[in-house]
Amino acid sequence: MTTTTLAVLVPLLPFLGAAAGLLLGRTAPGFVRPLAVLPTLAAAVIAAVVAARQGGGRAIDAATQLTPTGSVPIDLALHLDGFAVLVAVLVGLVATCVQIYSTAYLRDDPRYPSYAALVSLFTSAMLLVVYSGDLMVLLVGWEIMGICSYFLVGHYWETPEARAASLKAFLVTKLGDVPFLIGLFALAADTGTFRITGILGAVANGGLDHPTLIAVLLLAGVAGKSAQFPLHTWLPDAMAGPTPVSALIHAATMVAAGIYFVARLLPVFAQSGAALVVLAVMAAITMIGSGLAALAQDDIKRVLAYSTIGQLGYMAGALAVGDRGAAVFHLLSHGAFKAVLFLAAGVVIHAAGTNSLAAMSRMSGLTKRIPDAYWTMTVALFALAAIPPFAGFFSKEAILVAAEHTALGDRHVAPAAAGWTVLVAGLLAAVLTAAYATRLWLLAFRGRGAEAPDHGRQPVAMTAVLWVLAVPTIAFGLTVGAITDWFDGHSLTPTVTTAVLSTGVGLVGGLVTYGVWRHTSALAARTRVGTVVAHPDAEPALIEAQAMTAHTAAYGADGDAPDPADPGRLLLGPLHHHAAAGFHLDALYTALFVRPVQAAASLVRFLDCEVVDTYVHGSGTLARWLGTAVRRAQTGNVQTYLSALLAGSLVLAIAAVVFANVNAGS
Q1: Model confidence over 474-491: pLDDT tens digits?
Q2: 585-589 own/partner pairs: CB under 8 Å, 24+ apart
Q3: DSSP-assigned letters across all residues of 69-86
Q4: Which residues contact 434 (CB under 8 A, 6 or more apart)?
Q5: What Gene3D superfamilies does the entry give (predicted)?
Q6: pLDDT band at 454 (very low <50, low <70, confident <90, very high)
Q7: CA distance 613 to 578
Q8: DSSP designation for 134
């Protein structure tokens, strides 16, 4: 087979698996799990073959016209460059691990067939985005991911948290998609094509007339899809979905799509220095704000959610300084270690019976119950904190090096202001990242108190994939010298200055958090917490749903556990409550947008019911009254009808005579 034929199979196989799984889910349930795992696994293997054939060389393009439009054509096109083939391998690997993990995690879930089909469709949509060479075809995958996220985040629809989270995720991302769609049309109007190669060629020839407007419109969609300030608020709430879904969304699909889109079209954004500065400021606020929020969360998955927002901020920062190689490098390494973190968190929640770090800090022996999750999560947290030699260190250093070169004027793709903004924010975020990673590890695995419940060894399907994903978490960064061909050919090797500086501030953040924990941990034994531990013998998915409900009941919607033994509370001081509530952005949006919209809807409802309906009902009432009056004249008596006829004729005759006399007199 040719490389293009193989590339077509990569998104097609998961799609066919999703369709077959939905069709056979009820009639032949024994086929559901193979149809979930095997097509995705085959797509991952084929994606690896495509990457090997592409080899980081010249991009492979193939296209056929999908439909004539009369103006700008829409093509079914492939564009396989180094970025695309590597991201496709990541998507295939993580999706396969998620499907295998889910076979055990949701083993008794009656909605597993639809869940597995949606995961496969989600995977297919992301692969379509990755390989697509036409923006309209890319938009199809972009929107399919949005609707899949709605159903998957709302999988536990019995819980109010899942229902609200799925709706919020859908609406917030759609809010960004509206200007995004306008930006796509404006871009096509300026360049005359939706083909990515055609757009980049037009940009190189100066064919872009409104670069700032187009870039800002597109950034709105990117902010929604990749959870960047100010449209990031949906992602922490999306943790109400099953843990494997969280891993898929955070590591390899939906939130990565926005970053990947900007990387694909970076020359478009580079035409506007103002747009790059906007992107840099957006990334800086995202990095620092999410780091502070992560340090205050009690729900282990919400810590990881804010962590994802911050790491996406790093990628957006790399793009803001014009280095798409560093951005995609971090996207790949982050995808590996964040998948480990979420899947390991699912094991931890299953073993502990709770998602509350405060409750875990009052348990002992958890590391002995789940050694696989303990060791792989430890490795992934080292990668998250950018400690060498793990993958996160090399990819984060590549971003800081790019920011340093831009700030000092060694690179001229972006303004120096963007470079300084990303560099300073990146270093501050490195301190916060190390701090909340250390806090999570200490509270989850160094608890003191009653023994953690023991309900046997975790399923192999849940633990084996952790080690599979731990391999790139450890080793991917070490390939930095061998993979430059896939990253535009420029070096991603860290420099001594930024390596020492960022590692140093990261170690400071981790050590300070450890010192504070040593000081506060003695309070844990003297302070009870309100969270309820779920039944340990239930399946993992049921335990997670119970844990979320218990957590909300104990601590409220913000999840601010009043735990004096939490080192994050002491580190943040008066900021802690605000950080736990996401700096009240949801409350602000409710006041600025939700309530006015609800008030306007109430006004429209009043006008419809009390004004419009009054006229409608009034016209009907008038017709009914007239009908009643006429009906009374219908007596059925012929003499009455003749009398009325004669009386009427007499009246008409008299009126005619009077009218004639009046006219004669005048």
Answers
A1: 999 888 878 888 887 777
A2: 585/230, 585/233, 586/233, 589/233
A3: -SSS-EEEEEEE-HHHHH
A4: 385, 386, 505, 506, 507, 508, 509, 510, 513
A5: 1.20.5.2700
A6: confident
A7: 46
A8: B
Q: Could you please report the per-residue DSSP string of 220-242?
A: HHHHHHTT-TTS-THHHHGGGS-
Q: How far is CA 589 from CA 171, 172, 237, 582, 584, in A?
A: 13, 11, 15, 12, 9
CA angle 115, 119, 125 (to 5 degrees): 140
Phi, psi of 476 (to 5 degrees): -60, -40
- What is the Cα–Cα distance from 387 to 472, expressed in whole angstroms? 15
| Cα–Cα nearest to 183, from 304, 272, 281 | 272
Give residue 480's identity as a one-letter amino acid code. V
- The span from the CA of 274 to the CA of 156, in Å, is 43
Tell me the pLDDT tens digit for each residue of 235-289. Answer: 999 988 899 999 999 888 889 999 999 999 999 999 999 999 999 999 999 999 9
Q: CA angle, corner 95, sides to 89 and 98, nearest 5? A: 140
Q: In whole angstroms, what is the distance from residue 386 CA to residue 457 CA? A: 31
- CB neighbour list of residue 458: distance below 8 Å, 6 or more residues apart: 347, 350, 351, 370, 372, 373
- Count the helices and strands in the chain (H runs, E runs): 29, 4
pTM: 0.89
Interacting residues of 278 by C-beta distance below 8 A, sequence separation 6+: 216, 219
In this structure, are residues 194 and 134 in contact, taking their beta carbons and an 8 Å threshold?
yes
What is the C-alpha end-to-end distance of the chain, expressed in Å? 105
Block residue for tokens 């006041």: 591
Question: With bands split at pLDDT 50, 70 and 90, how would you rate the model's confidence at 558?
Answer: low
Q: How far apart are CA 291 and CA 630, in angstroms?
A: 78
Helix H segments across 321-390? 324-352, 357-360, 366-369, 371-384
Would you put residue 518 in left (φ > 0), alpha (ψ -120 to 50) or beta? alpha
For residue 172, which of 121, 229, 217 has the smallest C-alpha distance? Answer: 229
Pairing mode of beta strands 450-451, 363-364: parallel
> Which H or E element spans position 190?
helix 160-191
Q: Say whether 180 sits in a helix, a strand or coil.
A: helix
- pLDDT tens digits for range 18-63: 999 988 877 888 889 999 999 999 999 999 999 999 888 888 999 8
Amino acid present at 601: A
| CA dist., res. 235 & res. 250, Å (int) | 9
CA distances from 220 to 287, 313, 415, 446 (A): 17, 14, 21, 42
Query: In 3D, which of 106, 101, 78 has the Cα closest to residue 468?
Result: 101
Cβ neighbors of 589 (< 8 A, separation 6 or more) are 233
Residue at 328: amino acid letter: V
> What 3 state SS string does 538-553 have?
CCHHHHHHHHHHHHHH
Query: Contact 225/256 with Cβ under 8 angstroms?
Result: no
CA angle 615, 617, 621 (to 5 degrees): 110
User: What are the two backbone dihedrals, phi and then psi, of residue 634, each rounded to the nearest 5 degrees?
Assistant: -90, 85
Torsion-angle region of residue 493: left (phi > 0), alpha (psi -120 to 50) or beta? beta
297/285 Cα distance (integer angstroms): 18
How many residues are recorded in the chain?
A: 666
Please tell me the distance from the alpha carbon of residue 319 to that of residue 4, in angstroms, as a whole number: 28
Whether 448 contacts 525, CB under 8 Å: yes
